[in-house]
Structure prediction request, 250 residues.
Amino acid sequence: MTKKWVFMIVGLVAVLTTVVLTGCDQGSTALGEVTQLNLSSQQQGIWVTGQGEVSGTPDIATLRLGIEAQATSVGDAQDRAQNAMSKVMDALEANGIAEKDIQTRQFSIHKVTRWDRDKEEEVTTGYRVTNIVTVKIRDIDNTGTVIDAVAQAGGDLTRIDSINFSIEDPEEYYEKARKEAMADARAKAEQLADLAGVRLDKPTYISETFYTPPMYSRAAYDIEEAAAGTPISPGELDISISLQVAYAIR
Prediction:
């Protein structure tokens, strides 16, 4: 092989090498795309989730109750519902319920129908009026008495759907749960750092999520048993806080 051919081959290899390296710098080659990894964008340090939970005694009871009346005409159904609801409102006021703690949640008028087989069509048999309110009882020990009074006032038209217990100012419970969650996160991070053979530094990120599940129950009421009094037990509420914490590594 002559020197001329040797120089030509060496020059061609040099050109191809330059093209390949240039393609790599641009993020692609003739063989396909090249993915570049930016390590600075990845989560760094030790990330843990801490849990804290405390129990608190409810101090608010919320009743969902109302009146449901039915008659052959709209006017009669409305009159029956209005008279019964007025008595219910009077009973609530007599038991110390403030007007601001009573809120209308539903008012409806519906046709009551049945299927007529002879005519093969639906026929109207009457009308049903429903008036539902929620009542906040701040004296939670008086809940059973309020239920009894409402049932007696509304009579057979009374509807008591549910009762919900809550804490009006749960901040002190959140503070306790938050301390537990932070201590839990720190303990987990220290264990991970020890296992990894590194030293833990200060937190660089904290995110909080809290949850207080309402105590909710359906209520079934027997008016004939009202004289004996309705026992109500609010129990306790569990308040949970979850913290996601990132710790730097020394």
